[in-house]
Structures are given as structure tokens and as C-alpha cells.
Amino acid sequence: MKRKVISIVLAGLMATGMLAGCGSTASTSSSSSASAGASTETVESNSATETSSASSGTGKYAGQTITMMVDTDTMSGNNAVQAVIDAAEKKFGFKVELETRVGGTEGDNLMKTRLASGDMSDITLYNSGSLLNALNPDQYFVDLSDEDFVQNYDDTYKSTVTVDGKTYGVPLTTTQAGAVIYNKKDYEELGLEVPKTWDDFVSNCQKLKDAGKTALVGTFADSWTAQVLFLGDNYNVIAANPDFAKDFEAGTAKFATTKEATESFSKYEDLKDFYNKDYLSAKYADGIQMMGEETGSQWIMLTQAISQIETNYPDAVKDLGVFAIPGDSADSNGITVWYPSSWYINKNASNVDACIDFMRYWCSQDGIDLYNKNLAPSGPACIKGVELGDDVPDAVKVDMQKYFDDGNTIPALEFLTAVKGPNCPNICQEVASGQTTGAQAAEKYDEDCKNQAIQLGLDWK
How far apart are CA 374 and CA 84, in angstroms? Predict the structure, then answer.
């Protein structure tokens, strides 16, 4: 039986949130904007309708109640959260009251207001990465550093929920990456190898085009998809310039003056002759169709698309593979990863031990299996040693997993700095369509980021 997964429309909305570092305000990823001052009237308490009745009333924490806050974007079309809650209630005997809040900046503001007032749920879902750093988590959340399950965290994920040496978060779900999804049959037919350098990738595109194939799928009518090449190239930027994120936030490093960062835009220039003819008017759903019907050979996309292709075209997914966006050198080849939002335990919760045991179960093999059964994984788990299951496509459990096993992962830039230019989608569309050059795009993006840095109170020149 196929796992339950989200629709194409919902998948596109979730991806927009994932890439919110450049233009959206969805709070389901670490890329949402942050400010303060929302009204508490935007919270809905769903304890009457969303609290499971499955609790047996027995178990270690019988009679206790755990309150959880989660945004509506995460819960929309997602049965996985409730499935794990139901199982935990049966296992431990507590009841969970699930409270939803709006997504985006409004929900972000609301959560900060609740934290400041001391009126926060026992467990809350919030961003991993740079926005967690800005939240002063030591003031509000339980330090989980000494818990046994934290010792099994993927090192890079752990860095996104660790501030000043203390680890606070528990991953909601698995990872995903900005990478190249490709048709393995086309590669085999033409004798192509997975490229380790950008020049080799462009060469593969040319060979695919010469063979009469659509070498690259473009879906830039959905503007968020235009960003994936730029954002997914962050591994190459950071690998060559380890301090780039820190220096960029300080205003001392820029995209226009850092070679590899400029190349993240100029790569669009190299690809403009390889897309489908309607790449500027095609949408995300068209990309799903092209890869599913095998009329496109490669798609630079978030790997969440694989589960949607599997749903709509189950026979095609076995022919799909994934590889990282290549850089200049084959010796430095790795993948840019988007890490999930995370659960955090309120320091003032009256039942901290129950919350910790609940979170231990959440990131156990049983908990992850149950979550993935209800929502297909888009990448490897954030927990070392966790197996994704035989029904997970090889593109995820083999191709992507190898980058994690080899330690060749770096978070997307939005996890490393709060500075994000809101006009990134338009800038990427402009260079992809040939309206501007990569160098000009880098300058535009620096200026876009400068405006936001000033709003954040940073001393940018």
C-alpha cells in the first residue's frame, strides 16, 4: 500500500516555505522571517478535536497532559504528527493537547509573545538554524545535550539546534536537499556518469540535448523553483569559503565579490539553452509530470518532489537518481541540505520528564517509521543509524544517504544567517531568462540583502 503523501499543490506551498529565506514568510522551515508583537487571538486550541482518544489511561505518565503548539502549515494534509502522538499516548499514558497557530510572520510573532509572557505550551515547533540563535533559547527551552538520543544526531543537524554548546531541538521529520533529480535510464543510454564538476554537468546537458532529449526541466512560472539552483549551490560556496555565512552577516563578504558566490548566479547563464521551451511559463506540477512521464532528463529541485513523483507515477520513481549540484572541483563534492523545523521543550513545563520521554520516542526508529509511513521522507533522517525502509526510493536512501554518510553536507545559507534577500526569486528568474548576467544578479542580490540587514539592525555598509 502506498504511503499517504501531500498533493502537488500542498507540496508546492510547503516548498515555498522551505525557500522562504528568499521571499516567503512560511514558518514551517528555518527560513521564515522574525519580528515581534502579534496578538494571541490568532491561536486556535484544538484539544477537543485533535487530542487523540487513543490513550489507554495507563503507563508511566498516566493522568498527565502535554500541550503542544504547531503551526497550521505543518499540520495541513499531514497525518504523520497525529499518528506519532496517538502511538505515544498509548505507550506512555499521557494525553496530548495539540494547539495550532497561524504560520508565517504572524505566527512567529505570536510564539515570541507567548514565550515572553510565560504562557507557552509544554512543547512547541519552531525553526532550526539562524532564527533559533536569535531567540535566546537558553532562556526558554530545556537543554537536551546530555540525553542519550541526542548523541545519535547527524552532526550537521545537531549544529542547527545547538546554541552556545547546548542542544535544544528534536527534528520534526527527515531532511531534504536542493539537488539534481535525474533519469538514470537516460544516463545509461548515453553512457553518462554522475558529474562531480560543473563543467561535467554542463557537458552532460549538451549530450542529452544533442540526443534529442529535454536536458533540463525548468518550472520558473512558480518563482520559488527558480531559486533552487542558487540556494542549492551553497555547499560549494561554504566549502570554498568556510567563513562566508558569518562574514556575509557582518557585511564584510558579498556575493558580488566572492567568486563561488557569484558563480551561484552565473551558473544560470550556462544552462539557458538546455531547458524545455516553455521553462518560463511551466509550473512545479509540470515538472512533476515531465519527470514522471520521463520527458525530462534532469530537474534541479528540492528532493521533496521525489515523493510526489512516486505518488503520481509509481513506476517512474525507480528510474530516478539524485546528485549534488557540482562545483569547480571533483575533490569538493557535497550536497546542500534543508533541515526540518524542530520540537523544543518549555523550561517551565510541569512535566519535563514526560516531554523528554515523548521526544525520545519521536526520534526513535519506531517513531520515525510511523511518521514516514504517513508522510514519505524527502531525504535521510536527522538521526544516525535510522533506516528509512525498503519502500523508500533509492534516490533517497542510497544516493542522498551517501552524502550524509561521507559527511559531505552543508546547510542551506538560511540556516546559517538571518540575512535573506526577499527579491531572490525575481533575481534568479531574470538571470535564468537572460535579462541580466550572473555578475549583475549577484550585485542586485547584495543590495537586496543590504536593505534587509539594515532592517535587522546590522551595520552593513
Answer: 10
Q: Which of 246-285 are b and which e, b meaning 16 or more Cβ less than 10 Å from the residue's Cβ? A: eebbebebbbbebebbbbbbbbbbebeebbbeebeebbbb
Task: Give the side-chain half-sphere CA count within 13 A for 36.
Answer: 9
What length does the chain have? 461
Counting runs of H as helices and runs of E as strands, what totals does the chain give? 22, 13
Could you tell me the pTM of the whole model?
A: 0.86
Q: Does any domain span residue 201?
A: yes
**Nearest CA-CA partner of 264 in 251, 252, 248:** 248
Specify whether 23 is located in the same domain as 159.
Answer: yes
Write out pLDDT tens, residues 177-234.
999 999 999 999 999 999 999 999 999 999 999 999 999 999 999 999 999 999 999 9
Q: Which structural domain range is residue 185 located in?
A: 176-337+412-455
- Decide if 3 is inside a domain: no
How many independent structural domains does the chain possess? 2
CATH for 262: 3.40.190.10
